[in-house]
Design brief:
Keywords: Membrane, Transmembrane, Transmembrane helix. The protein is mainly α. Helices cover 76% and strands 0% of the residues.
């Protein structure tokens, strides 16, 4: 088959520490988001519940995306975009959770959201170049 790539070997980028770290981080985010969602549903009410569920939704979606996309991020630009997704969701969801847990707004949610948007656009640009 022309155009197909050989299966990954230990020396390919698929086995690089950065790819494994991104994929593992995505899985951990997804797991934590399930716990956060359960807490929001059973231990929080009103506006706090809505904020925590939003944080859980973004952490889950982006966690799954990281776990699924990281093993296929062959180029540095794709890995950079995925690292941006991770940083963005940590800032966005983390800020919402910190507001509830610590009672102070870190103000990072807008920056995290903007970083996620930018990271998705960078990933799209890299995907279009393949």
């Amino acid at each position: 088959m022309s155009g197909s790539q050989p299966p990954p070997t230990p020396s390919t980028p698929l086995s690089s520490p950065s790819v494994r770290a991104l994929a593992a981080s995505g899985a951990v985010l997804a797991a934590l988001s399930v716990a956060l969602s359960a807490y929001a549903a059973h231990g929080a009410g009103g506006e706090v519940r809505a904020h925590l569920q939003t944080a859980a939704l973004f952490a889950f979606g982006h966690g799954i995306a990281l776990a699924a996309l990281a093993p296929h991020a062959l180029r540095g630009l794709a890995r950079l975009a995925l690292a941006g997704l991770l940083a963005g969701v940590l800032m966005f969801s983390g800020s919402l959770v910190a507001t509830h847990v610590f009672g102070v707004s870190l103000g990072l949610a807008p920056f995290g959201g903007s970083l996620m948007i930018l990271a998705w656009l960078v990933y799209a640009a890299d995907a279009a170049r393949r």
